[in-house]
Amino acid sequence: xxxxVPTRQDAYIxxxxxxxxxxxxxxxxxxxxxxxxxxxxFCVQGTCEDEPAIMYAWxxxxxxTKLPKDVGFKxxxxxxxxxxxxxxxxxxxxxxxxxxxxxxxxxxVILPGKRVTDADVACDYxxxxxxPFAFRTHTHRLGKVVSGYRIRDGKWTLIGRQSPQLxxxxxxxNKQVNVKYGDTLAARCVFTGEGKTSKTYIGGTSxxxxxxxxxxxxxxxRHAIPYMNCMEMGSxxxxxxxxxxxxxxxxVSPSHMNSVMHLGQSTVLLDxxxxxxxxxxxxxxxxxxxxxxxxxxxxxxLDSDSNLVIFHRGDHHWGADSFNNQARYQQxxxxxxxxxxxxxxxxxxxxxxxxxxxxxxxxxxxITTDKENNYWVTDVALHQVLKVSSDGKDRTLMALGxxxxxxxxxNHFCQPTDVAVDTESGNIxxxxxxxxxxxxxxxxxxxxxxxxxxxxxxxxxxxxxxxxLVLLPDKKEICVADRENGRIQCFIAETGEFVKEIKKDxxxxxxxxxxxxxxxxxxxxxxxxxxxPIRGFVIDYSTKDILDTFSPNKKEFKMPHDIAETRDxxxxxxxxxxxxxxxxxxxxxxxxxxKAGIEVQELEEMDAxxxxxxxxxxxxxxxxxxxxxRKSPAKPNKGERVLPVIITTLLLIPLVVVISIGVFIxxxxxxxxxVKAEPSSVRGILGKIRGKAVGSLNLGNFFPSHKGxxxxxxxxxxxxxxxxERNDEDSSDSENEEYSALPPPQSSS
Length: 749
Description:
Blueprint: E1 2-4, E2 11-13, E3 15-16, E4 25-33, E5 53-59, E6 65-66, E7 73-75, E8 83-90, E9 96-104, E10 109-110, E11 117-124, E12 131-138, E13 143-152, E14 155-162, E15 171-172, E16 184-191, E17 200-201, E18 212-220, E19 227-230, H1 236-239, E20 258-260, E21 267-269, E22 282-283, E23 297-302, E24 308-312, E25 342-345, E26 352-356, E27 364-369, E28 375-379, E29 384-388, E30 396-400, E31 416-421, E32 428-432, E33 438-442, E34 448-453, E35 466-472, E36 477-482, E37 487-492, E38 498-502, E39 511-516, E40 520-524, E41 536-539, E42 546-550, E43 560-565, E44 571-575, E45 580-585, E46 590-595, E47 598-603, E48 610-613, H2 621-629, H3 638-672, H4 679-690, H5 699-702
Parallel strand pairs: 9-19
Antiparallel strand pairs: 1-8, 2-7, 3-6, 4-5, 4-8, 9-18, 10-17, 11-16, 12-15, 12-18, 13-14, 13-16, 20-21, 22-45, 23-24, 24-25, 25-26, 27-28, 28-29, 29-30, 31-32, 32-33, 33-34, 35-36, 36-37, 37-38, 39-40, 40-41, 41-42, 43-44, 44-45, 46-47, 47-48
NHL repeats: 356-391, 407-445, 462-494, 544-587
Region (Disordered): 709-749
Family: In the N-terminal section; belongs to the copper type II ascorbate-dependent monooxygenase family. In the C-terminal section; belongs to the peptidyl-alpha-hydroxyglycine alpha-amidating lyase family.
């Protein structure tokens, strides 16, 4: 390219600032001459008609060149240079080519009335690297949310997530994601069959459904593939680990009520008055199946097998006399906790799988695990952070801080509350704590790196007991429950730079614990200044919206101290005051059956426990529940007792008539023969009628020898046959059959 130089006066070049990159430019040369080959841009060999003078050269992202002070190249006027000519030698350019990757379900069936149906698609990626930059979701009217992920080394990273009821454009993808050989691409569509009366299949009409997740990507032109697809059903084992966010529907605002259906065949109007089916947690009341014998529960974590790890204080308690004014522990004479302070528990049944941590701790507080399943714990009495082996040998692999010595320098803590470990870098983060109010970062080998907080929080308000920590691996952030400030703050894990704050009126004045699994999980605590219900929260990280709140069914949280959630959506809350752990799940584990005004709730979680609830009379509930649980036959109510009385009466009337006729005929016979009936004969007849037991009646015995009569159907007669089970195997042909008398009327009191 040729550029004219002012010739009316002398000019000087003192700086050269290159605006190029070696990604596209191999090198540049700047020439000065009188007559260029062309005065416009050109792509030919040669630069100047006359002798060119090289003034500057650049290559390989060289920095700018600044000449010394008062030094310059003279150009213009009498210099003999009327033009600059810039010659650019382009490198071996490999432009990127865009393409589409489609994940699509082809065999999903949505059952009518079923609240949630998941369509899962996953394929291993076996081509050259691609770089997603946009995504699009598509379903018809039953779709609630569609999410796409890259899976690498077992870690799920979000590409994009959106409601298919919003305008179905391409939205920006997560910029941090690339896909390479050996990765897995996966997508989940969440549907609801509520309101449907027949099965819905995948198809192309508006009455069918579709599950599509489009990835728009670019890749090196030398290996470009413009279109790829995946239609394989994802395995159940793989999708057990999908982040919880993939199961949470996205609310659609009234401004986006209209959604265009597939191929423009029809338009559906979203019913925004219908409550959104958000994530809802219910307590599993039958968990654990047997008592865990816990002390104050201070910390919860999960190991690599998704087992629950409980950190508790055994017979030690944190009371008013535990520390002096200098935060020094005052009860060392009690010795360490003799019970196993660390319990590994089966998350399904609550049974103890492993126990460790005897004679190691004084006042446990926080706990987490690393990728080797080692335990990282804090002890507020010891003022230490300890790395402990999980092999049952109770080995201390690393100790940060000095035992029983509080401090605020790089080598001491003061009642540290929690610890988090970055699984990729191994960096250690400690919330310190009750005295120092700071977050400290250490390297994997325990070297002090940095800290923040301690009165100079980037969010302007200092920490007031940073009580709980959680790493957000997909966002490279760490969040802290700032307890007494009633908020959650998040920071860039690498630098400690402030990112966001989540503070809700529903928290009241305190937030005790925070956890993360695609969504934020938190528990608040009792606040004297702003009394609110103590409960758990499910929070959307991006919008900060509260998606759900949860608490125990019968009891109330007293001091929920920590929270943990499994990959399948189960949530556990450890309560320090009640010395217990509560389990919550996303599915309501019971259904109700109403019979005769009684609502029977059959719990499906543990051994089909049957509970009964009588709404009109709570005083009778316990008795009815016990009878239902023991599966004893239900007693007939007043209305049910009337019908057997009527039936019995109707049956007895013809019976009495028949007996009377028989007696009359016998008497007539004897009378005609002028034979006096012996009293014993009468007694014999009545004996036949009465049998050997009071209240007995057997028509089979009364007419055993009369021709034309059959015993069948007369061996047992019960006027309450509809209310009592009959055992045919126990039926007897003896004369001792019993007549089932009516039960006496029950008092209504």
